[in-house]
Amino acid sequence: MKREETFTFVKGLPVHQVIDLVHATERWDSYITFETKKASANGKSALGLMSMLTTLKLGEKVTVKANGEDATEVINGLKTFFERSELTQEPLDYWEEAGVETVEAAMTGCLTAWSDDVQQIAKSYLKTTRS
């Protein structure tokens, strides 16, 4: 049996959650893949999922495909996992997303005019809002 589900993320997964995710996928027999527009990863590969899921951006979609006898259980289990970790909350509407992008663009554009201390604070902020 084949099952497929697309999830919209509000941010990337922290490393410890990717490891928890891999442990969860290893208990199922189905072949599991995670796909974005740019990449595909084996659902039981820590390195593959680490490189994909830790760098997700706001609103990015990930399609999970499960192929096997327990495919329905896989998809339902992953829905529960993502809901519990609050990574697939409702995406921002157009105006909220445009506001975030505008602020990030303005901050990035102003970096050269700021002192070194202010630049470090802004870079730190941008890293935390993108992760």
TrEMBL record:
GO terms for molecular function: transferase activity. It comes from the Bacteria. Pfam families: PTS-HPr. Keywords: Transferase. Residues 8-83 form the HPr domain. The keyword Heme does not apply. The lineage of its organism: Bacteria, Bacillati, Bacillota, Bacilli, Bacillales. InterPro entries: HPr-like, HPr-like_sf. This is Phosphotransferase system HPr (HPr) family protein.
